Amino acid sequence: MSRAKLESLGGGRFRVSGSLDAATVGELLKQSKERFANEKQIEVDFAGVTDGDSAGLALLIEWLRVAKDAGSSLRYNNVPGQITALARISEVDDLLFTASSGQPAASAA
Questions:
Q1: Contact 29, 4 (CB under 8 A)
Q2: For site-directed labelling of 58, which of 27, 46, 84, 102 has its Cα 20 to 30 A away?
């Protein structure tokens, strides 16, 4: 079974490592709801992610919803190429990479 980890770096910054797939994203979503609570500015770095699939893309989209519902801003850094490509193919790249304020919500590696 692949493993993924969500690590808090403090100050609303987080690092994700491992594989973002159907076997791992459920647990990451559960952890993130606790860890993202009360953070007005959230920044997630994916530099440690080894691979990702459509489940990983779904997680990033769900995190946008969670942040919006909480009134928080969310920024992604070093989004894995596989997830970026899936976002483009699925035509949700604008959703992931542009915040409602017009500022970048994410940056690809």
A1: no
A2: 102
- Residue 96 contacts residue 76 (beta carbons within 8 Å): yes
This prediction's pTM:
0.86
Domain around 9? 4-108
Instruction: Give per-residue pLDDT as tens, 18-35.
Output: 999 999 999 999 999 999
Q: What is the pLDDT of residue 2?
A: 58
**Type of residue numbered 53:** D
Domain with residue 16: its CATH number is 3.30.750.24
pLDDT of amino acid 3: 87
Instruction: Indicate left, alpha or beta for 38 from its phi (over 0: left) and psi (-120 to 50: alpha).
Output: left
CA distance 95 to 56: 15
CA dihedral 35, 37, 41, 45 (to 10 degrees): 20
Q: How far apart (Å, rounded) are the C-alpha atoms in residues 35 and 48?
A: 18
